[in-house]
Amino acid sequence: MKEKVQAPELRFDGFTDDWEERKLGDLATSFEYGLNASAKSFDGAHKYIRITDIDDSSRKFNSQSLTSPDIDLSSADKYKLKNGDILFARTGASVGKKLYIR
């Protein structure tokens, strides 16, 4: 059951509806660890998103210095991002830092 909560003052562009409190587990189909690989120069095809690539202010992917993962990607399909995916840091100094894929 969705619980309605009072709309906070913080609003997102184009969002005017009431806020609803949700549990992440009710919205997600799975929770997965990300790819663990070193970065190499961008190969022109495979963008590698590291936590340091998420801008601290805008929370958007910084595509100024693209890299690629330094591994064989033939069996890495489960790491390819799709619209609606949510990335967030689970450990370290940047825990909680997030990026929503649109």
Can you give a write-up of this model?
- The chain is mostly beta strands and about 100 residues long.
- The chain contains one helix and six strands.
- The protein has a two-stranded antiparallel ribbon. The chain has a two-stranded antiparallel sheet with strand order 3-4.
- The mean pLDDT is about 80.
In short:
The model has no long low-confidence stretch (mean pLDDT 80). By secondary structure, the protein is mostly beta strands.
Order of helices and strands: EEHEEEE
> What's the shape?
globular
Q: Pairing-aware structural class of the strands and helices?
A: mainly beta
The count of helical stretches stands at: 1
Runs in which pLDDT lies below 50 for 5 or more consecutive residues are: none
- Strands in their spatial order, largest beta sheet: 1-2
Write the layout of secondary structure elements.
Elements: E1 3-4, E2 20-21, H1 24-27, E3 39-41, E4 67-69, E5 86-88, E6 98-100
Task: For the structure shown, list the relevant keywords.
16% strand; mainly beta; globular
